Amino acid sequence: MKENKIIYLDNAATTVPNSDVVALYNGIELKHFGNANSIHALGVDSSKYLAKAKEKILKSFNLFDYRVILTSSASEANNLAIKGTAFNYMGRGKHIITSKIEHPSVLEACKQLETLFDFKVTYLNVDKDGLINLKELEEAFTNETNVVSIMAVNNETGAIQPIKEIAKIVHSHPKALLHVDMTQAVGKVDIDYNDIDIFTYSAHKINGLKSGGAIVAKNKINYQPLISGGDQEYGYRAGTSNVAGACALAKATEIALKDKTKNHNHALELKNHLVESIKEEDIVFNSNDKCSPFIVNFSLLNKKASVVVEALSLKGIYVSSVSACHSKREPMSYVVDAMFNDKSRAKNTIRISFDKDNTIDDVDSFVNEFKKIVRSIQ
Predict the structure, then answer these.
(1) The whole model's pTM is what?
(2) What is the domain range of residue 321?
(3) Domain contains 360
């Protein structure tokens, strides 16, 4: 490894912003800074840029009869998508279906609906591949089910749920809406977005900027707002519109979807090289060959993952143990525990996650240092 070179392999947590996206943001923020809700010329100018950004997002996803609601993050988007629809459609029932391995922003939203608002929530099990059982999903429906929330790609293992099949089941129940957390899927896996009623994603996972997220949903779907105080975002999210952020999100989305096949193949090459290089070590893989190639998750059998991750960091190699959204408060991966019912395995996970700029040399640097560190730990 070259002296002082950073090896960044934690792209599922966040990615390096694209320089063109940053330049676009700065240009819009400095030149088109008017409040998009103001009726003077600067406000009208900003509102046009906001509308064009949303049009570009929908065009990138090849969607019609959908609309974009801008948020500060995928976590906020998940909360509005789940709680906003659950509250709005309570007349249909107060039952939600999700899985045990969703992102914390989904799980905590569902728990809040349970504990404070008397909703019933079914948490689906997953198998050792990290997949829900479609029969269990079908059997979970009741006359009260109004929202189903299943992520497309798991943020810890890269497990890819069968969204098309899930959508068919959900849509056979006319009162239910399907929400899909697409945060780890946009620009990475093949998805027919027209199968989904509501999906959410984040800019900073696709080389965009932090504090940018969105709900993309069918026009007919309505929400109870979680942030009141203005008529921005169709009245569903009050607050002065981030016009530059919207333009940056649109640009990052366009680039990610345009380069999807090339980036997928590149990540697959890196994943295969990594797996071959470490498969003889004292580890077990929690990701398999059907998972997203952008994420490789494995557990150490006889060493502490936290010690290894810290030692790698001291060498300028950055990987993660558990999801960044709960790593500081939870000592193990609830995702891996749900898959294998093995607390020891769940406490010692390491996640490697790739981006388009990672190289085979990066993987080799990680492997070499990883092997040295593991063998040095008593």
Answers:
(1) 0.95
(2) 7-16+259-376
(3) yes
325 classed as catalytic: yes
Q: Are 284 and 299 in contact (CB under 8 A)?
A: yes
**Residues 60 and 114 placed together within one structural domain of the fold:** yes
Measured between alpha carbons, how far is 202 from 244 in angstroms, rounded to an integer?
Answer: 15
Residue with structure tokens 């629809």?
A: 85
The maximal CA–CA distance of the chain, rounded, in angstroms, is: 69
Given 258, 287, 312, the domain boundary residue is: 258
Chain segment 156-210, per-residue pLDDT in tens: 999 999 999 999 999 999 999 999 999 999 999 999 999 999 999 999 999 999 9
Residue 214 is encoded by which pair of tokens? 């969105």
Catalytic residue among 110, 247, 291, 325: 325
Helix (H/G/I), strand (E/B), else coil: 3: coil
Q: Please report the DSSP string for 22-76 in residue order.
A: HHHHHHHHHHS-S-TT--SHHHHHHHHHHHHHHHHHHHHTT-SSEEEEEES-HHH
Tokens of 251: 């640009």
